[in-house]
Amino acid sequence: MTWAGKGKVAVAGIGFSALTRRSEQHLGKLAFDAANAALVDAGLEASQVDGLATYIMGGTGRDGVDSVSADYFLKHYTLSPDFRWYAELQQGMIASAVIEGANAIISGMANYVLVWRAMHNPPDRPYTQVTARTAQGDSQFSLPYGQSAVYQWHAMAYQRYLHEYGAKRESMAALAVNSRRNANMNERAYFRDTPMSEEDYLNSRFIAEPLCLFDCDIPIEGCAAFVLTSAERARDLKNPPAFIASVAQNTARNRPAMISYILDDYMACGATLAGQLWGDSGLGPRDMGAAQLYDGFSPSTYYWLEAAGFCDKGEAHAFVQNGRIAIEGEMPVNTFGGSLSEGRLHGMGHLAEAALQVTGRAGPRQVADCNASCAIDGSPLLRGSGVVFTSEP
Amino acid sequence: MTVEPERALPAVTDLTRPFWEAANDGRLAIQRCQPCGYYNHPPKPLCDRCQSGDLKFEDVSGHGTVWSFTVMHQKSIAGFQDSVPYVTALVELDEQKHLLLVTNLPGVDASDVKVGMHVTISFQRLSDEIALPQFVAAPS
């Protein structure tokens, strides 16, 4: 089947709060900063917003402090008197909120949907710290061995990748350095003023071998927000619309019983998702002016490059070399710096950049003649979601 | 690696008790689906492959190969801060593709761990009730 929404919905406004390592502000305030910026970008008023969608995995309960729910916006933000719809997703990835919002607009449930994802980075609770004294559930088969942090599971999959394809961890320097170079051209990026060389990457300390520090995204405090509306309405607004050509989400289904993040199923999950993105949009990887591929941990970008057909299976480590993925290269990747160098926004940065690139608004990072760009989030080791944006519907 | 006292111990439940009882007895037993023969690990209320609830724990050979591994450097996990860097590995049991168990490969130096190396089961006592299955290098 084919999604019936091609070209019917657009991102009309994009906004960010300040992205900092720690913030003096409550997260709720940062979310409203991002929402306000997105509305200004679109030339809309908050009182026109009649739909809300967010992805809220990882919140620990204090709404407006640890996370920002739809309920928080409903209680504290100015919305349309005709407000009628919201979605608050615990599963999937951030593009899932865009997908929900797009479908709400197509079905007539809402005219202007605000989508956001707010990330908290408290100094007293590093997100990888494991303090449990008992190993509950499935973790009783891993935590007593000191295996628990999400990056340890990614490291296992990555080690297996290196083994299966004869790849070297040193090859990842090209991807990490490219992302940093792009972030140095991105005024909102956490690492905008910090260059990084191949030597810097190779000399960084290990986190869980083969993953080093610069294979991990930089946790930040902040929020990104979009305004979605119909293609028709979007054309009358302040900035050019980024039309949604296709959307997809999928989960790795055949992964073995051991805890997630096993390498073997990433092609099945990712290729199905990408097949829907390409099939519904009528476009393919070679039509993308730029690809924004999730990099919470850098190997996920390899997996997406392969699963989405930018290169063959097992070839991503070679594909990213020699400037091919640079902004001026043949297949620009993570033109905004990725989560590695812009900051950990769980895929919102990827979506924002794809929309900015197709509307010619990426400033010094602009890829020439970028008429289509995809943002694919998550990791196909586990699950993912994606959107293809185009400059024309 | 030494066992630090604050390490998290398994919260044994009805579902997982046969695994830990066998381990305490020096045996590696994995939950197996009786109708379809599929091994499920960690144990499941229903078989991952055929959804049957007819599941029993059966002793396995204890032989396998290292499917992958990582060397942990972060002092992030209670009970393991003083152990870094330490190895965790996934061992694929000979009985079934992707039947994976976590281990620390005690006695194997981090620089000697290789994907595909042959390993065999041993047990590390953590408490009166808990003996932790640990794979060690198989005699060559």
Describe the structure.
The complex is a heterodimer of chains A (393) and B (140). With 393 residues, chain A is an alpha/beta fold. Chain A has a domain at 9-124 and 219-235: Peroxisomal Thiolase, Chain A, domain 1. Chain A is 30% helix and 19% strand. Chain A is built from twelve helices and twelve strands. Chain A has a nine-stranded mixed beta sheet with strand order 3-2-4-8-1-9-12-11-10, sandwiched between helices. In chain A, strands 6-7 form a two-stranded antiparallel sheet. In chain A, helix 2 links the parallel strand 2 (51-55) and strand 3 (85-89). In chain A, helix 8 (266-281) crosses helix 9 (299-307). The radius of gyration of chain A is 20 Å and the shape is globular. By secondary structure, chain B is mainly beta. Chain B folds into two domains: 12-60, no CATH class; 61-140, OB fold (Dihydrolipoamide Acetyltransferase, E2P) (Beta Barrel), CATH 2.40.50. Chain B contains one helix and nine strands; from the N terminus they run βαββββββββ. Chain B has one helix spanning 17-24; strands at residues 9-10, 29-33, 39-40, 55-59, 63-72, 86-93, 100-103, 118-125, 131-137. A five-stranded antiparallel beta sheet of chain B has the order 7-6-5-8-9. Chain B has a three-stranded antiparallel beta sheet with strand order 3-2-4. In chain B, strand 8 and strand 9 (131-137) form a beta hairpin. Classes of the chains: A alpha/beta (393), B mainly beta (140). At the A-B interface, strand 5, helix 4 and strand 6 of A face strand 1, strand 5, strand 6 and strand 7 of B.
